[in-house]
Design brief:
The structure is a homodimer.
Chain A lengths: L2 E4 L8 H12 L14 H4 L4 H7 L15 H8 L4 E6 L8 H11 L8 E3 L10 E4 L11 E5 L11 E3 L2 H12 L1
Parallel strand pairs in A: 1-2, 1-4, 2-3, 4-5, 5-6
Chain lengths: ~180, ~180
């Protein structure tokens, strides 16, 4: 059985929408996703890099993230044909460990928590595929990287790309056959 | 540069001594390591499996563990020639995440926290070597397993074995040369 490693933030957990909403509220801004296409919010407001990072250090931030559309259904289906691991770069926000774990147990109860991985450098991941929104994690990864479209990575080229979970389903259903 | 993945509990963190001391104190016992050679404490007292597991769920338990002798010096030396990752099966005790992270930052400040991995099933680890006291983690591991001697694994045969950190040093110095 082949193995798919799946990132959390911006792949199954909608970090971007939460962060943008909090930012617009706190700074009386009205930035839309289109305004910052191709970059992260911290690149749009480098003067507020620390404040933006602080959102992610709030214990409740990760707990309350919305689930990305269709990810639950598609992962459940994929888990019949593939070994599924959730591999998240949690070391960047050590205060998030417990919330990330509880979020996964709540929203993906059908996954085995022995297959959750909190790491930093994802070259440590031994899998056939890695679905991730950050291309830096494909460097050194020994399997096939699959770029999950996020606002910030829209201009990246040269990778297998999926735009939503229905496309993830198609991508892998072709491979099983 | 080749990569060594290193387990925490019973390899760099002395979980066994702490657990045995607490157990003897709480249950007015006087069990020595020799009394339970070749097995874990929970196999010696299966009636107390849950109570023994509860020790590991106390938030302070992992924070206060002693460092295994010579592990700091040898890992520091090894890190000149190898990529070092710390790979711990933290998903078994989700309440331990923060304490394990802080313990590593305190006792191994020279390691990059991007190379810390909290996981469950270690077949996800992509490394050339895995130093671990639990042989079950070698099953499915794609590299070379190196069994670090612990009280409970003393009767395991068929593995490369190291009895202390000086032997780890010797094991890898031969390979670099």
């Amino acid at each position: 059985m082949k193995r798919i490693a799946i990132d959390m933030d911006e792949v199954i957990a909608d970090l971007f929408t939460s962060q943008l909403t909090m930012f617009n509220n706190d700074y009386k801004e009205n930035i839309s996703p289109e305004d910052i296409m191709g970059k992260k919010l911290r690149h749009h407001r480098p003067d507020l890099t620390e404040e933006l990072s602080n959102y992610l250090k709030q214990p409740t931030f990760f707990r309350d993230l919305e689930v990305i559309e269709d990810s639950q259904e598609v992962i459940k289906e994929l888990s019949k044909h593939y070994e599924i691991f959730i591999t998240t770069a949690a070391m960047e926000y050590p205060t998030s460990f417990t919330e990330k774990y509880e979020w996964l147990k709540k929203h993906f109860p059908f996954l085995n928590d022995m297959n959750f991985v909190f790491c930093g450098d994802k070259s440590i991941i031994h899998a056939d595929y890695l679905i991730d929104d950050n291309v830096r994690h494909f460097k050194g990864f020994s399997g096939q990287g699959v770029l999950y479209t996020a606002n910030h990575n829209i201009n990246e080229i040269g990778y297998d790309r999926v735009n939503n979970w229905q496309e993830v389903k198609d991508y892998f259903s072709k491979r099983v056959k």
